[in-house]
User: Which sequence fits this backbone?
């Protein structure tokens, strides 16, 4: 093209004026603001969870988190473990470290950006799972007002254990994605291929956290319902439905797709069926042991049961559609899991947000009015987003000492002096402290503390002795006799009082965070 022609065309195109530029920017900004205004209440809820998670990091980084970090450090240095050498009681015991991938990821994040980066990303990941559950509830047919109403109790149950910083947090996004893929496929008029992504997700999940068994159960239930539909439509030939059989058989097999292979069977048997866990850890106890959870849980469960019954009666009379069998079965099974163990109420909370809004919308029949798109809601949403961003920056700038500020750092010099008196001394430390000590001073404390949160590695007699430390039976006394240094948690008033009054026990130091005592120290 001739130079003059190009110059003429350029000259013919006037430069945009400031008013035109502002108009163009507004055209871009308005859709974004409109999107945010329509979802302002959901954005506020998600940001509130982010802020709550960030503020509570020192309280939420506890024994499970420290175990993940010391295991991740071990894996990064020596590969996937096969035997435990962290504690005295489990020394040399075969260790199926099912959570190895999540542990490695947590440690590498700390290695990359310190506890600051790891904890912030953890909070953002768990908040993203909550946001994904809200989006899934809307995508499955829940009206905005119904989703918002269900989000409140769902968030309450979800946050019971979701705030704890540990390997389980890696499973929340996988749970949300898996449940949404399965539930949406069963709603579709035609079978899609997207649901097959569930199987590789289960393989990933099986290397992150033991809750993969629940994911396999969700997928297996999907396969059974697909098989039932196929038999209804095709008769006995429907028993050969390839998709149904793939999910029924492939889902449990995915749990073995780890470096430990068939060894996972023993791991799941020990962790899922051991009654001693409920005596040691509150999360493993039935939900009735925590009235603050049990009362709203059973009230909500009764309301859901009544709602499903009303939908079923309406369907029989032709006034409503049948409630989805898969949704109802999932909610019932997860509710039963929560009754058995408090730790399962988190999954029930996420499932509520995903599956209950469509049921509520169907029960009301009339179309709900959309959420008000008020300017006030938009301003509040923008404000909570700003607060969440500022809090994120604040946590990233915190010193490392802030993250374990609930732990007794001044106890480490005291323990070091006691060990110097007797280098062979071992420590009976409350489970809260054990892995934190190993994280802080691995050369000094690894292999010296009595036990940690890897309860699946302990024998039944060992677990019983730990659960009844204050008892005057032979097992408890024999257990404590092996340890000349005791590190007790002050909140365990009854147990501490009984132990400290025994002959030969000398209190070295006492504070609101720890009690250190000796018993026959050389």
Assistant:
């Amino acid at each position: 093209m001739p130079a003059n022609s190009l110059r003429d065309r350029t000259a013919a195109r006037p430069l945009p004026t400031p008013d035109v530029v502002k108009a163009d920017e507004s055209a871009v900004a308005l859709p974004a603001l409109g999107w945010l205004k329509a979802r302002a209440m959901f954005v506020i809820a998600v940001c509130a969870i982010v802020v709550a998670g960030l503020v509570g990091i020192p309280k939420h980084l506890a024994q499970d988190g420290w175990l993940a970090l010391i295991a991740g450090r071990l894996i990064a240095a020596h590969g996937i473990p096969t035997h435990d050498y962290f504690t005295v009681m489990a020394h040399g015991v075969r260790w199926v470290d099912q959570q190895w991938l999540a542990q490695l990821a947590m440690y590498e994040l700390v290695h990359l950006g310190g506890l600051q980066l790891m904890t912030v990303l953890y909070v953002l990941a768990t908040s993203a799972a909550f946001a994904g559950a809200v989006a899934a509830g809307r995508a499955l047919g829940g009206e905005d007002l119904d989703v918002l109403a269900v989000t409140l109790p769902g968030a309450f149950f979800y946050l019971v254990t979701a705030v704890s910083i540990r390997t389980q947090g890696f499973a929340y996004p996988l749970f949300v994605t898996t449940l949404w893929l399965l539930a949406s496929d069963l709603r579709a008029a035609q079978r899609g291929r997207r649901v097959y992504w569930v199987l590789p997700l289960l393989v990933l999940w099986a290397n992150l956290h033991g809750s993969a068994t629940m994911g396999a159960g969700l997928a297996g239930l999907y396969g059974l319902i697909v098989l039932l539909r196929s038999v209804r439509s095709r008769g006995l030939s429907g028993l050969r439905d390839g998709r149904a059989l793939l999910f029924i058989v492939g889902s449990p097999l995915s749990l073995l797709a780890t470096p430990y292979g068939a060894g996972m069977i023993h791991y799941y048997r020990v962790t899922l069926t051991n009654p001693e866990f409920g005596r040691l850890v509150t999360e493993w106890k039935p939900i009735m042991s925590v009235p603050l959870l049990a009362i709203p849980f059973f009230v909500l469960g009764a309301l859901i049961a009544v709602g499903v019954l009303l939908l079923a009666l309406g369907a029989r009379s032709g006034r409503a559609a049948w409630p989805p069998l898969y949704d109802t079965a999932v909610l019932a099974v997860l509710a039963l899991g929560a009754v058995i163990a408090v730790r399962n109420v988190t999954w029930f909370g996420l499932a509520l947000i995903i599956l209950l809004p469509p049921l509520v919308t169907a029960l009301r029949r009339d179309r709900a009015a959309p959420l008000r798109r008020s300017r006030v809601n938009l301003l509040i949403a923008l404000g909570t987003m700003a607060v969440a961003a500022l809090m994120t920056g604040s946590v990233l700038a915190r010193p490392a000492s802030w993250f374990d500020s609930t732990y007794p750092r001044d106890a480490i010099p005291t323990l070091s002096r006691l060990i110097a008196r007797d280098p062979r001394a071992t420590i009976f430390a409350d489970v809260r402290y054990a892995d934190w000590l190993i994280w802080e001073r691995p050369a000094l404390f690894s292999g010296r503390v009595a036990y940690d949160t890897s309860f699946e590695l302990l024998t039944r007699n060992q677990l019983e002795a730990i659960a009844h430390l204050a008892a005057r039976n032979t097992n408890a006394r024999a257990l404590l006799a092996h340890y000349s240094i005791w590190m007790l948690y002050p909140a365990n008033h009854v147990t501490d009082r009984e132990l400290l009054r025994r002959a030969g026990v000398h209190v070295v130091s006492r504070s609101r965070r720890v009690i250190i005592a000796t018993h026959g120290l050389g």
About this structure: The chain has 23 helices and four strands. Residues 100-139 form the longest helix (40 residues). The first strand starts at residue 427 and ends at 429.
